[in-house]
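Same chain as my last thread, 740 residues:
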Amino acid sequence: MDDKLYQKVVDHHMLMEAWQTVKTKGSSGGVDQVSVNMFQQNIVQVAVKNVIAPNIEKGFYPCSYAYRHNKNTLMAIKQSSFFIVKENRKWLAVCDIDNFFDTIPHDLLLQKLEKKVRSQAIINLIECWLKMGEINKNVAWNDRIAGVPQGAILSPLLSNFYLHPFDGLMLKKRVGFVRYADDFVILSRKKSDAINAANTAQWYLTEKLKLKLNAEPKVIHVSEGFEFLGVSFKNNDTLLSKQKTLDLLLTLSNNLKIDKSGNIVPLFYTVCENIRKYYGKILPEQILENLDREFVQIIAGKLFYYRKNKTIASKKQFADILSTIHYFSYHFGNERVALANAMIAQCDAAINQGLQKFVGMEIPISEQADEYPEDENPADEPKPQSAEKIIARKRREYQKLESAGMELVVSSPGVFAGISQNRIVLKKQGRVIHSMPRRNLRNISILSRGVAMSSNLIEYCAENDIAIHFLKYNGSPYAQLISPAFIRAKTGIAQLESLDNGIAQKFIQASISGKMKNQINLLKYYHKYRKNTDPDFALQFKNKITSLKKLQLKIKELPTDDLTLFRKSVFAIEGQTAAIYWTLIKVLLDKHVEFPGRLHQEAVDIVNCLLNYGYGILYSRIWQAIQQAGLNPYISYLHSSERNKPGLVFDFIEEFRQQAVDRAVIAFITKGEEYEIKDGKLSDNTRKRITEKVLERLNNVEDFRRRETRLSEIIRFRADKLSQLIVGKVKTYKPYVAKW
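reply #2:
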C-alpha cells in the first residue's frame, strides 16, 4: 500500500473532522461508544480487507462458522447435531470467551498479522485502527488499550484470525469442535476425552492468547441438555428452551402493532421472517407447532384489542390482516383459513359479551402425530426388514387412508351432495351412496353433469377453504368455487410492475429450470429400475440425458434484459427439451401402448387423453393455490396474457406436471389399468380412475425441505413464495424439484 495513503488516513485533520461530526451529533442527542471511524476510513478498510482476506481466510478451519462466506449459525447448529446424532459424541462442554472482542491483546494480534501480511503500511494502518480511541456519550476521549472495535469492517476477520491457532489445536485433540465467534462447543465419545479437551482449551486461551472463559468449563452428558447459539439440545433432539420461547413470543408480541392506516407495521413481518428463516430450518415440526399455539394466542389477544377500539373496523379488514400473517409450522400454515375464521368469530363473540380482555382462543385444529423420515425407495429391500422400514410402510398406508378423506370425487349424473351433521353425504334417487367425515376434506371434484349440491354444503366449503372443482369430459376446469378472501389488489399491482422490474425473468428462469430438472429426475427414476430390464429405454436414455442436462444449464445462461426476447429463447429451449423428454417417454411406453408423441389438441390416443385430463385436474389446483396466495391468475409472465385465459396458471404449472400427472399416467399404463376411450373421450370409469391416481399423487407425502409434506401443500407453499417474490418480501424463487 502507498505510504501516502497511510499518511492521509491517519492525518490529524481527518481525525478532527470525525471529532466535529461526533460532537455535532452527540452534544444534544448523546453518542454512546462511537468509534472514530469515518466514511473514508471505512472505504479504506474494505480495500485492506480485500487485499489481506484471501491470504488469511484460505487457511481457516471448517470448524469456524462466524463471519465467513458460505458459513452461518444454522450450519454451526447442524454440525453440532451431526456430531451428537451421527457420530455419537454425547459428552460435551459448552464454553464462552469472556468479553472476547474487547480483550484481544493488540501486540499479540499484530505479531501474528506481521507473519501473514508483508506490507508494513497495511500493518501500520491496522494498528492505527485498533488503537484509535473512542468518544463516549459525554464527548470525551477514551483510549483503546485492547480489543477490536465492534462494528468495524475488519473486526470479524481479525477476531477469526486471532482464534485460528486455537481452532487448529482443538481439531488435533480429535474431538467434535464447533466455534461461532466467541462461543464454542466440544463434543466427544468419552467423558475423559471431553474433560481433557476442555482443560486444554482453557489453558491455551489463558496462557497463549491472554483471554479467559466466562466460567470454568463443565463437561456434561447430552442427556442433561444444553444450549448453544439460541437452541437447546437434549439427547438427539433439537429444542427451544422455555426462556428462549418466552423471548421469541415477547418479541412477537411487542412488534405486533396496527398503524394508523389499519395495517400491521412492517417490522412485525421482518421479525416473523427472521424467526422462520432461523428456527424454521432447525426445529422439528412438533416444536414449531407448540410455538404456533402460543403465537395464535398473542395474535388473538392483540387483534381483539384493535377490534374492540375500532382500529379494525370490519370482519373483512380483520380477515385481510390475518391473511398476511404466516405461521412457523406447516401444520398451522395449512390451517390458516380455519384459524382466521375461528379467531374472528371468537373475538367478535367476546366483544359482544362485553369482555374487556380476550382470555384465550380455542384453537380449532388437532395436534399432529410425530413424524419420521420416509423411505421413498421402491426398490426390493433385503429381508428381514428392519423395524424402521416396517413402521415406515405402515405409516404410508395410513397416510393414504388420510389422503382418501381429503378428496371427494363425484363422477355420476343424478347425484345430490349435501351435509348432515359432521359428514358429507352423496345421495342418488333418495338413497345414500356415499358418506364421509368432513373434518379432513380439502377438495370436491365434479366430473359429470347433472350433479346437485345443497347451499349448506357450499357455505361450509366456502368457510373452510374447501374448493369445488367442475371439470369437462377432457379434464379442463370450466368453473371453480373457492373463498374470495385471499385476493389482494396490492399484489396484483405488484404483478403488473414485475413485468418491468426483472422479477418476471427471474421467475421464468427458475420455474422452467425446475421443470427441466423434474423431467430429468423422472427419467432417471425410471432408468434406475429399468436399466437391466428395458435395454431400448436404457440405450436411448444414455444417448439423450446429457443433451437434456446441457439444455437445462443453457436456460440459466440466457440474457434477461429484454423480456420479449427472453421469452422466445426460453420457448425455443423448452421445445427442444420437450422433444427429447417425450421421445424417451414414448420408448418407455412402447411395450404397453401405442403413443404417437405429445399432442395437445385433437388427441384421440389413450396416453394423450389421460395426460390432458390429468393436467386439467392439476390446472384447477394450481389456479386455487394462485388465488389463495393473493395473485391475479390473468397476469402472466411466460405465456402471453389473453382475455379469459389464466396465463399465470399455465406459467406456474410447469414445474409440477411431471410428478403430479406424468408419473401418474405412466403408472396407469404400465401397471395395466383398464381403460375405455371412444372418439377421443374417456369413459366415466376411466375418468374417475385417472382422477383418483392424480389426486393420489397430489396428496402423496414426500420429503420437502427435510419435512414430510404433501405435494398439494408444496404447491401452495410455492405459490406463497411467488407472491412474496413479487411484492419484494424475498429476493429469489426456488422451484419445486422432486427427488428421484
